[in-house]
Write a structure and sequence with these properties.
The chain is α+β, with helices and mostly antiparallel strands and 175 residues long. The chain has two domains: 131 residues, 2-Layer Sandwich (Beta-Lactamase), CATH 3.30.450; 32 residues. It is built from four helices and five strands, in the order αββαβββαα. Strands 2-1-5-4-3 form a five-stranded antiparallel sheet, sandwiched between helices.
């Protein structure tokens, strides 16, 4: 799992399925929250609220921490490493890989049954991996190719400069 920009494309129906499944996980596990990010830390979905935290930054840190833990595991020749647990006096966070492109982090209190959270999170991870794969496959079919997007963006920016009566935009933005 390398932290890089994701080209994950999800349809509205797959996002709804993902949100529903994560909500189900939070309810069944008695969790406080669950965050789904891509492996680069970009927040995809959340249910519940990590109390008083910047959710976007928190999700990015959890994904980065998971990536670091996986690299440590690789160095130890442990290639099936898919889950981390951070335990505190009051709160815990269980983070697991979803497919190969996403990370699911579930926050729960110290009094919550760890075994139940691990079991339900593993089930949810498998379900989410399928939803993400299906949604990404459909989304990729309907998405504008990158080259078309870049050409459209360039034409739009040039048109804006012409409308403003300005000269050609600085050539630096094209490189």
């Amino acid at each position: 799992m390398e932290a890089s920009l994701s080209n994950l494309i999800l349809t509205p129906s797959s996002i709804a399925a993902i949100e529903a499944r994560i909500g189900q996980l939070v309810g069944e596990a008695g969790a406080q929250y669950a965050l789904l990010t891509d492996t680069s830390g970009q927040l995809i979905c959340r249910q519940g609220e990590p109390s008083g935290l910047d959710v976007v930054a928190f999700g990015a840190l959890l994904a980065a921490n998971f990536a670091a833990s996986r690299q440590i595991a690789r160095m130890l020749h442990e290639y099936r490493f898919r889950m981390t647990l951070q335990q505190g006096e009051r709160s815990n966070v269980l983070t697991t890989l979803v497919g190969e492109r996403c990370v699911l982090s579930v926050g729960f209190t110290a009094g919550t049954q760890l075994g139940l959270v691990k079991y339900l999170t593993a089930q949810a991870s498998a379900d989410l991996a399928r939803s993400i794969a299906e949604g990404d496959e459909v989304g990729a079919e309907t998405a504008m190719p990158l080259a078309d997007f870049q050409a459209t963006a360039i034409r739009t920016i040039e048109a804006l400069f012409r409308e403003a009566g300005s000269s050609e935009p600085d050539e630096l933005w094209r490189s």
